[in-house]
Amino acid sequence: MTLKFYAHPFSSYCQKVLIALYENAIPFEWRRVDEPGAMEELAERWPLKRFPVLVDEGRTVAEASIIIEHLQLHHPGPVRLIPEEPRAALEVRALDRFFDNYVSTPQQKIVFNQLRPEDKRDPQGVAEARAMLETAYGWLDGVMANREWAAGGDFTLADCAAAPFLFYADWTHAIDARFAHVRAYRQRLLARPSFARAVDEARPFRPNFPLGAPDRD
Ligand SMILES: N[C@@H](CCC(=O)N[C@@H](CS)C(=O)NCC(=O)O)C(=O)O
């Protein structure tokens, strides 16, 4: 039975899973959340209404990292995104948590703040989010000084997270030139065919970026 993917091409968490799907050429059927009735179907399956959600033979799988773990278990391909060796797998999952919690979460906070009416905005929250991004870039710069991919030599789940999160984080809170290793890593991610495809598919939606998309990437 075909995998059904509730998602939107411009969403960072959806791109995280798209990278995994494209890396292993896993066939799936799109259910775009902006299609009529799709959000209602999604809410039936996952009342939290966050996307992406994958439906596999009637089973609902939510949360981008868990979807990627599910794909590896049930639809393995040539690119192993979570290493078999438990210690290596722990490092991958630790980096994945880093990108979710300390890059994507503050980045989304800044974007969601922008979507609020002006009198409901939270300047202190935004300042804290920007400070967290600076700290995260600094820590990551040290990690990436001698790594090709986030967890070492192989492209993994952690890079699936890093690619869209650093992509949008740089639009939201520019990665300063002093974080040269992070900037170089972001460029490597952009050159990875699976992510390049996701970026291209999302191009038509750039005018929707609430802070204004830069004319690059
Ligand atoms: N923890 C979730 C986060 C997913 C998420 O935040 N998705 C965004 C799109 S990028 C969303 O559903 N936004 C709709 C909303 O917040 O109502 C995951 O890892 O998949």
UniProtKB/TrEMBL annotation:
UniProt xrefs under Pfam families: GST_C, GST_N_3
Matching CDD domains: GST_C_family (cd00299), GST_N_family (cd00570)
GST N-terminal domain location: 1-79
Key words of the record: Transferase
Domain GST C-terminal residues, every copy: 85-211
PANTHER family, per the entry: GLUTATHIONE S-TRANSFERASE 1, GLUTATHIONE S-TRANSFERASE-RELATED
Name under which the protein is recorded: Glutathione S-transferase
Lineage, broadest ranks: Bacteria, Pseudomonadati, Myxococcota, Myxococcia, Myxococcales
